[in-house]
Design brief:
about 375 residues; alpha/beta; Alkaline Phosphatase, subunit A; two-stranded antiparallel ribbon; about 20% strand; globular; binds zinc ion
């Protein structure tokens, strides 16, 4: 009896200690989070200034995010994504574990506990830092072969991205040193395997979908005959079947890679491709009226400067301050129910808490 009273008291304390970070009860049924990796305000400016069909100008709820890691002023993609995925900052290199290595629940874990469907799309390998923070827990982002093993058990309904290198052994064309064929294992875990994006069109499978379209990553946007928007639309078509709602994370992974090597043409093409995903998300949200769309970045890369314009071609001229990430604030753009929670200047992990609290209002924060 005493033990029972103690349990009730503990539960009451936990409930009274729960802080709801999103400030209203206007909770959306669906949430689509789009992450432009390394997409600083300059990259967004390129889109808004030079792109005919720019999507960023459609947003009315706009804010800024401080992207620091727990241990460093300048975050890497692992700690950056962990802040959004879990509502906690961690050290650079770590994926959804705290600096001491303790596992942190992700928004995917929490959505699944609420029977909400989940999806992850990336133009990198699914084992790369940003998607990996949502679907694995690991002390190091470098363990991409181990992360592939964890993805087997992640239970996410739609997974679309690259990564055969990490799922297949060397003798099957991958880069694994062991003999595993983890793509076959995904089949046994209940997934329909899709190896060509064209096959996503039309038929909506009752099974979970594992679409894997590249070795280390998807081809560059310019070299694909499908856009990130096409993948986003295909995922939404499947996920919207769940009456309880869905959470979908879409990453434009290669904006960062283009900025890392200061390649303007590559960057602009990836920005335009990322726009197609934002467009697909907004199109669905406008029709559905119960979907929150959030667009943000994990950090700025390269501190790009727009320095002029070619009068003949109209193309923007740019200067690069660095090939590294920076601590510049990044933008956050949101549309739909509860979007008013995502304005002002906020820390990245608070943004994560706000998203998680829209799915689980009573989630207990430490
Ligand atoms: Zn990043």
């Amino acid at each position: 009896m005493i033990k029972k009273i103690f349990q009730y008291t503990t539960a009451a304390v936990l409930i009274s200690a729960a802080v709801f970070y999103s400030k209203n009860n206007n909770r959306p049924k669906n949430i689509i989070l789009l992450i432009g990796d390394g997409m600083g305000l300059s990259q967004v400016s390129v889109s808004a200034i030079s792109m005919k069909n720019d999507q960023f100008k459609k947003f009315k709820s706009i804010g800024l995010v401080n992207t620091c890691a727990a241990d460093k002023l300048i975050t890497d993609s692992a700690a950056g994504a962990t802040a959004y995925a879990t509502g906690y900052r961690t050290n650079n290199g770590m994926l959804s574990v705290d600096p001491a290595g303790k596992i942190l629940d992700t928004v995917i874990d929490i959505a699944q506990s609420k029977k909400i469907s989940t999806g992850i799309i990336a133009t990198s390998s699914l084992t790369n830092a940003t998607p990996a923070a949502f679907i694995s827990h690991n002390g190091t982002r470098k363990d991409e072969f181990g992360i592939a093993h964890q993805i087997l058990k992640c239970g996410v309904d739609v997974l679309l991205g690259g990564g055969t290198d990490f799922f297949l052994s060397k003798n099957l064309g991958g880069k694994r040193e062991d003999d595993f064929n983890l793509i076959d294992s995904m089949k046994y875990a209940g997934y329909e395997i899709v190896t060509s994006p064209e096959k996503l069109k039309g038929k909506i499978s009752n099974k979970k979908i594992f679409g894997i379209f590249g070795g280390y990553a998807l081809p560059h946007a310019k070299e694909r005959n499908y856009s990130l928007g096409d993948l986003t639309s295909a995922a939404i078509a499947k996920l919207k079947m769940n009456k309880a709602g869905f959470f979908l994370m879409v990453e434009g992974s290669q904006l960062d890679w283009a900025s890392d090597i200061n390649d303007k043409k590559y960057l602009f093409e990836e920005i335009y491709d990322f726009n197609s995903a934002v467009e697909a998300a907004l199109k669905f949200a406008e029709e559905d009226k119960n979907t929150l769309v959030i667009v943000l970045a994990d950090h700025d890369t390269s501190s790009l400067g727009i320095s002029g314009k070619n009068n003949e071609t109209g193309e923007l001229d740019v200067v690069w301050a660095t090939k590294n990430h920076t601590a510049n604030l990044v933008g956050i753009f949101s549309y739909g129910p509860a979007s008013e929670n995502f304005t002002g200047i906020e820390d990245n992990y608070i943004v994560g808490r706000k998203i998680i609290n829209l799915i689980s209002p009573n989630f207990g924060w430490r």
